[in-house]
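User: Hand in any protein.

Assistant:
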Amino acid sequence: MNPDLEEDRKIAAQLHRAWPAFFEKFGRLTDVQRKVIPLILDGKNILICSATATGKTEAVCAPLFEKNIDCNSPWTILYICPTRALVNDLYERLLPPFSKFGLNLIRRTGDHRTEIDFIPHVLITTPESFDSILCRGKFNKHNKNKKYGHALARVVALVLDEIHLLYGSPRGEQVRWLIERLKRLKMYAKEQGWSKTDKMQIIGLSATISEPEKVVIDFFKTGEVVIINGKRDIEVVNSCIKPVRELLPEYLKTLFYPEKILVFSNARKRVDDLAADLRDVIESIGYTCIAHHGSLPKEVREEAEESIKKTDKIVCFATSTLEIGIDIGDIDLIVLDKPPHDVPALLQRIGRGNRRTNKTRVMLCGNIKSDDILHNAMTEAAKSGCLKGCNSGHNYSVAMQQIASYIFQSPNLVRQETTIHDFLKSCISSNFTKSIIDSMKELDALHDCEHGLRLGQYLLDLCSTGEIHSTIKSIGGYTVIDELSGKKIATNIEYVTGNGVKTGGESYKIKKIIDYNIEVCKSKDTTGEWAYKKQRIFHNASQAIALREYLNLKESIWPIIYTGEFSYVFHLGGTTRETIIKALANINGRVSNFKKEKTNAFFMTFSCFIDKKPDWLNNIGTGNFELYIPSKIDWFEAKLCRPYVNRNLPVDIRTDEIKSWLNIDEEIENIKKSVWTKTVDARIKDILSEFLEY
C-alpha cells in the first residue's frame, strides 16, 4: 500500500467526527496535514511553515475540533488573524463544519462587535479585539455564565494565523504581550474555580518566515517547528519586461479562455491610476476592472472580493491588502506592476495564484531596466526559498500600551506596582521595567494611589473609547464623499489643488470641501494634485541581498563604479547598512567627499575617484558607535521608521531598540571585512550601472 495512503487512513481513524466535516470532499490529506495533525492531537505547541494553499487551516482546526467535541464543559479555540478581512474569510470557511455539530463560532472585530456573553467554542478575532476582549470579557453577576468568570477563561487552544505578517511589528509584539496576559487570566481562572486547568496549546501558521525558531521562543516559549519544504514552480509568462499599461492589454487580447487576473502595485495611488487608465481597454475586451486597497471603504473592498470570486473574466488592481489568505477563488495570473519592496512580500503575492496546481503563473512588469533586474533577482530568491535580510528588532512602545490596557483590565482599574513589574519582566528585559514605569509617571500617564498604580486621565479616556487596544495609529487626511448618497469613496486623502481626484479606478469632480470632507460627483473631465497620506514603513534588506545573490557576489565584495564625476560603492546591505554608513559619516565630520543624500539601500556615493575603502570605514568600533546613538536618537528612529510614540520612552530603551534593528556588531564587522574593488565582471558592472539613478 502507498505509505501516504496508509498514513491518511490511520489519521482518518483518529478523526471520527472531524474527517467527514473537514476532509471528506478531498478524500486525501496534504503533506502538511499528514505531518501536523498527529502532533496537534498529542497536544504539542507547533509553528507550521508551509506554502500558501497547502491546507494549514484544516490541518489545525480538524484535530482541535476532534480533541474537544466530546468535552462536556465549555471550551474555546481562540483564533487570531492579522486582518478583519481574513477574520471574515475564515468565519465563512469554518462556519459549516462547526455549526453542523451545534458548536457556536463567532467573530469579533471592529466591524462585527458581537456581544460575547457566553463561552464560545470558536472565537475568530484580530489582535486589537483580542486586547479589548481581555479587558471587557468578564461576566457580570447577572450573567447566566458568571460561574466561568470571563469569556476567555476556557481557552484550550490559541491559533496564530499568518504569523509572519505579525512577527517583528508592533502588532506582533502586542500579540506576544496578550498571550502573556491570557496565560495570567487562565491561572487566575483556575484559582477562582472558573476552570479546572490553566493549560493551553499554542499553534502558529506561516507561509514564509526567516527565523522560525526565534518566533517559537517569542510567542510560544517552547514548541516545535514543522517546515514543509514543497515549493511551487514559478512560470513567468512574458519574455521581456514592459510597463503594465502595455503588457496587460496585449496579454488579454491573446486569451481564448476566461482568466482571473490580480495586479499588485506598491502604492494606493498607483492602483487608482492603473485601474482608471486601463478600465476602458479592459472592459472593451470583455473583462471587469476593479480596484482594492486600504483607503477604500470596507463595503467597496468586500464587493471587490466578491466580484473576484464570482466573475470569470476580471482584472483586479490591488496593494498588499490582497496579499494574505483571503478566499478570492483561483487566480489564473499574478501581475507584478513593479518589484515588491522585499522578498516575503513577493512570496505572499505570487502565493495568491493558481491554488489548484503547484505552478504559479506570473507576469513581471516594470518601467526601467532596474525593475527587470530586481524582478529576476527576487524571483530567483523566491524559487530557492532565500529569505536573507528579513531580521527585525524590538518594539518597546507596545510596553506602555500594554501597561495601560492591563490596568484597565483590572475590575477596579488599579494594579499593584509589583504586579506591573512582574508583568513587564515576563516580556522585556528586567533592566527596563523601572524606567518605563517611572517615565509613564513623569508623563502623568500613571499615578500612584493607595492600592497601586492607576491610569492618568488621557490614557483612561483612550481605554474608555477602545483606542488603547490598537497599535495602528490613524494617519488622518481628507475623506472623499459622494455628494448625492453621502457614501464614503476614499479616506486618507492629502489634497493639494485642482478640481478632481481619481480614486478606486474612477474619476471624480470636486463640488465642495467642508472641513475634512471632499464632496464629489463622477466625471472624467478632471485634473488635480493629490496623494494618500502615508505611514512610514521599514523595508528589510532582502531586496538588496537578493540582488547580491543574483550576481553571485560574496558578502565581502563591494564593487566600485566610477562615472567620471561620482564613485558608487555597492554595499547591497539594505536600509540598516545604509543607516550605519550615514551615521559613521556623521561621526567623522571631516568626510567631505561622501555624498550622504546620494547614498541608499544599494550603494554609497563619493564625489571623487575612489579605489579603496577610506580610513573612516576601517577604523570603527562598536562601542563608539553605540555611544553616538543616544545623541541622534530622533534621526535613527526616523530612518528606521520607528513609531513616533517611542519619544515617550526613556532614551536608554529607545537606544536599545535601535541597536536591535541595526544588528550593529555584525554590520560593523561586515563593513570592516569589505573589499572595495573596481575589477568586477563586465556583466556585473553593467547590471549595477542600471541602479545609479535608482
